[in-house]
């Protein structure tokens, strides 16, 4: 047992201790449920609040740099400066150069822009092969912002797509599986850096290095969606030789805009990465993403990136300790009934993410969370049907049995989460499961 786990084992797990924590603040109830200001939020993989420094930067920018960045008025000049500073801060976070950064509305747009670029670039570079469709390679655990775009291309007969399965032993895509999927018409490989449900970190660096080492594959473009990884682990384009990297502000205490890194510099071994705009207009962002800049939000994104650059080690350490404490306490209550989905001996997880299932016929994750009074977390499965229960396809893709995946709950810790919050959540889960067992 690690010292870290030994340390968290010292903290008591008693109903009285947790109940004391629950009642520290004024407590009001509506229909038997604690109101929102008493909730413990553990869904930071879904979204994060604005850091107070980010909020201050946004407010200050909107107040003093409200002009059009393209104008020569004083407010416009201040706005242009704010955008330039933010671009520098984003680039420093991933060890790129400012010219490599394009601001977008968010991760979905960034991913669409990359896939659109790969499609257009293949068509422009293969004009003589009108019958040959571009071929994309991705994994079977990607976010819908990649998956659904490629499904659309396939349905419209615009492209071929190969979905490389992840290993049941690691929860990660196998490098050789990606290499084996490459064909003569492969135009882009897109593999997420870390999965949003399991937290498993994917071998993007090795995939890129292997592809780059093979001269016949030099024209293949490489992309990673780093939405879940940034702010939790180090992300550097110096160690990740990708052409494109997606950045999403609201996943790391920034505003709901995003940015795209694209490798604009040319090297003796590699041409610069292409970027084809999806929109046309006023020429902003060097015509890659036209439209008057959302200066306040861009400045806020820059500040969020600056905070990650400055504090990442402390953020990661804090979240890792919380996750260890959370999982050890659940284990002490449920023993072998507890399944930690995504915890593999041969792969690493994000430090804040814990996807767990507790065995029991009536313990579907959604039902347990519904019976919790003060815990806000998610089940992970993106099912929008009101009549049909969905098991997470991400979990089943990693080899987790369906009856275990059905009980899954994803808890993702944040910077301000405390050990007392974890105690409260543990108490809440235990109480909810006892209630379900009693009714069953």
TrEMBL record:
The family database entries (Gene3D superfamilies) matched by this protein are listed as: 1.10.260.50, Aspartate Aminotransferase, domain 1 (3.90.1150.10), Type I PLP-dependent aspartate aminotransferase-like (Major domain) (3.40.640.10)
Task: Write down the species.
Answer: Owenia fusiformis (Polychaete worm)
Which Pfam families does the record cross-reference, listed alphabetically? Aminotran_5
The molecule here is called: Selenocysteine lyase
Example of a GO MF term: transferase activity
Q: What does the function comment of this entry state?
A: Catalyzes the decomposition of L-selenocysteine to L-alanine and elemental selenium.
Give the EC number.
4.4.1.16
InterPro entries with a match to the protein in the record: Aminotrans_V_dom, Cysteine_dSase, PyrdxlP-dep_Trfase, PyrdxlP-dep_Trfase_major, PyrdxlP-dep_Trfase_small
This protein's UniProt keywords: Cytoplasm, Lyase, Pyridoxal phosphate, Transferase
Q: Which GO terms describe its cellular component?
A: cytosol
Assembly state and interactors? Homodimer.
């Amino acid at each position: 047992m690690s010292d870290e786990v030994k340390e968290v084992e010292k903290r008591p797990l008693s109903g009285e201790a947790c109940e004391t924590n629950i009642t520290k603040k004024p407590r009001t109830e509506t229909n038997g449920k604690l109101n929102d200001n008493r909730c413990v939020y553990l869904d930071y993989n879904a979204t994060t609040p604005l850091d107070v420094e980010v909020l201050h930067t946004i407010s200050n920018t909107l107040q003093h740099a409200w002009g059009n960045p393209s104008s020569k008025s004083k407010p416009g000049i201040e706005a242009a400066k704010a955008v330039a500073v933010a671009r520098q801060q984003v680039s420093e976070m991933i060890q790129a150069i400012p010219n490599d950064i394009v601001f977008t509305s968010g991760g979905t747009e960034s991913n669409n822009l990359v896939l659109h670029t790969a499609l257009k670039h293949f068509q422009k570079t293969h004009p003589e092969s009108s019958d040959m469709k571009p071929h994309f390679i991705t994994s079977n655990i990607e976010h819908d912002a990649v998956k659904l775009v490629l499904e659309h291309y396939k349905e419209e007969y615009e492209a071929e797509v190969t979905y490389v399965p992840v290993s049941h032993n690691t929860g990660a895509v196998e490098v050789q599986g990606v290499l084996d999927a490459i064909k003569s018409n492969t135009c882009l490989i897109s593999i997420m850096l870390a999965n949003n449900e399991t937290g498993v970190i994917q071998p993007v660096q090795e995939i890129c290095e292997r592809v780059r080492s093979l001269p016949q594959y030099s024209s293949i473009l490489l992309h990673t969606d780093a939405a879940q990884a940034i702010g939790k682990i180090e992300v550097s384009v110096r160690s990740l030789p990708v052409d494109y990297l997606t950045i999403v502000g609201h996943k790391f205490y920034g505003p709901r805009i995003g940015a795209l890194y694209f490798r604009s510099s040319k090297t003796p071994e590699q041409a610069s990465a292409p970027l084809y705009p999806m929109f046309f207009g006023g020429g902003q962002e060097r015509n890659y993403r036209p439209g008057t800049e959302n200066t306040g939000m861009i400045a806020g994104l820059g500040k969020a990136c600056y905070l990650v650059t400055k504090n990442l080690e402390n953020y990661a350490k804090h979240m890792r300790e919380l996750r260890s404490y959370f999982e050890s306490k659940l284990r002490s209550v449920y023993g072998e009934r507890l399944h930690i989905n995504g915890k593999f001996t041969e792969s690493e997880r994000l430090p804040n993410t814990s996807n767990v299932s507790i065995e029991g016929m009536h313990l579907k994750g959604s039902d347990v969370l519904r019976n919790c009074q003060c815990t806000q977390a998610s089940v992970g499965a993106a099912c929008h049907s009101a009549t049909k229960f969905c098991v997470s396809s991400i979990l089943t893709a990693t080899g987790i049995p369906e009856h275990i995946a059905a009980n899954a709950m994803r808890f993702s810790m944040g910077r301000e989460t405390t050990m007392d919050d974890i105690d409260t959540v543990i108490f809440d889960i235990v109480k909810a499961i006892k209630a379900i067992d009693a009714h069953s």
